[in-house]
Amino acid sequence: MSELVTQLPIGNGIAGAPVARDRAALATVLSQRSGPVGVVMTMGALHEGHAALIRTARARCETVVVTIFVNPMQFGVGEDLDKYPRTFEADVARCRDEGVDVIFAPTQQVIYPNGDPQVTVHPGQLGDELEGATRPGHFAGVLTVVCKLLHTVGQVDAAFFGEKDYQQLVLVRQLVADLDIDTEIVAVSTVREGDGLALSSRNRFLSTVDRQAALSLSRALLAGLHVADAGGEAVLEAGRAVLATEPAVQVDYLHLAAPDLGPAPSAGPARLLIAAKVGSTRLIDNIAVNLGRA
Ligand code: PAF
User: Fold this and answer.
1) Which of 68, 168, 186, 269 is a plausible cystine mate for 105, CB 3.0–4.6 Å?
2) Helices (H), the chain
3) Within a domain: residue 138?
4) pLDDT tier, 294 (very low <50, low <70, confident <90, very high otherwise)
């Protein structure tokens, strides 16, 4: 085994999931395995939402690979790349607890050996909307690294993405469809705290007061869901009414769209999405709604 593969000890003395630090090490570990390969891509700071992705992958795939890589390319100037939580030891322990087979934790040099890539994945028009409108270049960074990680792991049968980052999920589906990548993209439901707050690595930055205010995001979505029978305008009005009661929340958008994020239908399945800044923390959330005719 390459010296770049670390066999991590676990409490009972049995070796845990190996951590591969470069492509050769990953290839070595994967060459010893057979059956369908599932990948869960993460930037670390793992929480129960990631655990749900890993469990879904575990239930479907013989080999489960978790990637841990904080991708600089998807952070804009002035965004929280430096502040992004790094909890590597705890992440490895969580992967081990969830029965992950291989952890791929490359350095920046491994993923971007020549610095910023000249050729990147263009996300199309949707990449400039919603999150993309506030975070120019974000989805080009996401899709480029997703593409690179899929190629690096090799033949990936399924990749698992959370519905919490709904626009990312839609764009990753578009990526594999448009670029003929033979990987099934599996969506996994958002995991929430008991009070409704969607789990996010960034929740740890919320003060107690901000965390309370942040609950208005999921409440706004639920308010919309409850009146969905009355149609799209009623959904948006109900959501806005909740948000108006929480001045500490700076709403970026409350947006109703088709499930593929095209224009909202007048009736039938749709997606209600929200983004807001609470204190200095930007949060996103979304929910499926079934619109009745107004
Ligand atoms: O969702 C994330 O954590 C990241 O955007 C991803 C998919 C791991 C790409 O860096």
Assistant:
1) 68
2) 23-31, 48-60, 88-97, 108-111, 131-134, 138-153, 166-178, 208-226, 232-244
3) yes
4) confident
